[in-house]
């Protein structure tokens, strides 16, 4: 199974449209570190703090988790831990408040983090008549505004129960690993996609089940495990660089804490990442 070739890309950029008689196809995109150079689950942390939805301590914890994710990614177990932490954190939040905050701050928080290469690929697939589906482990309430910014109408994401206009914190569907593959199969069944002609893009080894569902699997900025799997299976590997992913730690003024304390928080986050990487490396050598 192969990804899009350079010749295919040039054809797409020339404006060639899809054959109306061709089988219906789709391009499935993971979101975090594939379309955007950040984590959608953590991206709005500062804005939630400014609007009183989280405390300073919770904001620091979010930034530490984001730093860990951006530097070394998250394993399946870490994704589960993040899911549990965030689901408890958002319990009781007003859906209207979340929608207002994400809409008002989208252009300053997330838009600058969208990879130019991802935008180009989305437009390429649209020109070739493929449906675009964002498929993410992040909560749908956070994925929706990003999809609108990209002009994407179809998403499938983690779902959180809503009662009386507020999040309960109960996860009703968690889109990770095999669940993403199941979602792709559901889309194919509902829309009549020929999966052998479809594309899928992701950065994480946790998405290998989804990537294996399609005929054109592409590893984008892959973690080490996905890179090896992609090489072994002759999948295309792409490196997105614009924008360059940056870890933006909060400044002391934003949290109302001393610069020395903030420096300690930053160092602790970096040390935590180093320890996790060392443990992983040692376990791989045993």
Automatic annotation (TrEMBL):
This is HAD hydrolase, family IB. One of its GO terms (molecular function) is metal ion binding. Keywords: Hydrolase, Magnesium, Membrane, Metal-binding, Transmembrane, Transmembrane helix. The chain crosses the membrane at residues 255-276. Belongs to the HAD-like hydrolase superfamily. SerB family. It comes from the Bacteria. The keyword Cytoplasm does not apply.
